[in-house]
From TrEMBL:
Transmembrane segments: none annotated. It comes from Columba livia (Rock dove). CDD domains: FReD. SUPFAM superfamilies: Fibrinogen C-terminal domain-like (SSF56496). Residues 16-228 form the Fibrinogen C-terminal domain. This is Angiopoietin-related protein 1-like.
């Protein structure tokens, strides 16, 4: 579990700020509507993203969206996952490299959201969220949990997939998990151990124990924004 914090810098200190391009969606006016915007994390080219201004706290940058009936296979290569794919107005993955650059700017938190067939949403939030560099395998770092149900990302579950916190990002053509095979071959790119407790990157498979144990929830979202836990 990651407990190190870095103070978020003001927008004016970020690359691109002089041109009015914010480093993430939290720098939009609170009255701004949810929609498509351009952001520019430090050391990154500008990126088109969906900014969620409706979820509690406003100013969330959407880094993943998946629906059960998606046209995406999610079985993309490491390079495709690195730079992102899909449509920010629909199902998409921002890009593992951009997740790294985004979360290196300061201390970020994450909210994982899943919705069932009755349109009821559940969420799991971690007060620290970071994706490390490509050289280290894009490992996931998470802080303290809050939300619905149990924590299935930072607690080890030996009868399921082990753990996700501190695991490297696995794709079908880059096996770095602790399983005898490649976990990503069956579903899609994710932070696997042996293989998964939780999986949101899958075609017709969105899985979170207790919340969506059958894997057939209608949609998932991953939202990030700066946090002030320190």
């Amino acid at each position: 579990m990651l407990l190190l914090c870095a103070s978020p810098a003001p927008a004016s200190r970020f690359q691109g700020a002089e041109y009015g391009v914010p480093p993430d969606c939290s720098h939009l006016r609170k009255t701004s509507p949810s929609g498509v915007y351009v952001i520019q994390p430090a050391h990154s080219p500008p990126r088109v993203v969906w900014c969620d201004m409706d979820t509690e706290g406003k100013g969330w940058t959407v880094v993943q969206r998946n629906t059960y009936s998606t046209e995406l296979t999610w079985k993309e290569s490491r390079t495709t996952y690195k730079y992102g794919f899909g449509n920010v107005q629909g199902d998409h993955w921002l890009g593992t490299e951009y997740l790294h650059l985004l979360t290196q700017q300061g201390t970020y938190k994450v909210r994982f959201v899943v919705q069932n067939r009755a349109n009821v949403t559940h969420y799991a939030e971690y007060d620290i969220f970071r994706v490390e560099s490509e050289a280290s395998g894009y490992p996931l770092r998470l802080g303290r949990f809050s939300g619905d149900g149990e924590d299935y990302l930072t607690i080890y579950h030996p009868k399921k997939g082990g753990i996700h916190d501190n695991m490297k990002f696995i794709t079908a053509n880059r096996d770095q998990d602790q399983h005898s095979g490649n976990c990503a071959n069956s579903y899609g790119g994710w932070w696997y151990d042996k293989c998964q407790n939780v999986l949101l990157n899958g075609k017709r498979y969105i899985f979170w124990p207790e919340i969506c144990s059958s894997g057939d929830r209608t949609s998932s979202l991953i939202l990030v924004k700066p946090t002030d836990v320190c």
